[in-house]
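Hey,
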Amino acid sequence: MKKFAFLLFVALLSGCSSRSVVSLPGLMDPPEIKFEDLYLRGVFNWWEANAKYQLTDGPQGWYVEVDLIADGQPYDFRLSDGFWTPDQTCGARYRGQVVLNQEPLYMVCGTDSENLQFTPQKTGVYRFTFTPASGGEVMLLVTPRA
């Protein structure tokens, strides 16, 4: 009985001295997205962080323009920094999420994000514009350039 009481005491004592590593949803702010360090990365640039695909700050948000060929095949892509840092990598909520021309889409950031897919209707230059949204999300708008 004394051994049991002693073990119980030690267990309680160690429990009181431990820090909790559990994070509760809603209690931590999402990491700040550093748009100036981000690149549009996808099949059109071999998923590389090329200077040509680094975001530029503009009046409507952060953007990059990409030449795309309308061959009926979707272009897979994500937004990320040069190191694929998890909290700076943004994409789809689910695998195969489709981006529509001139329709806003809200991207999620983190290890759970997936590739987005965009299929251009016409061959040409498309502007991908990104703006911060609530809850650590990023709003994406793809528009054709005239």
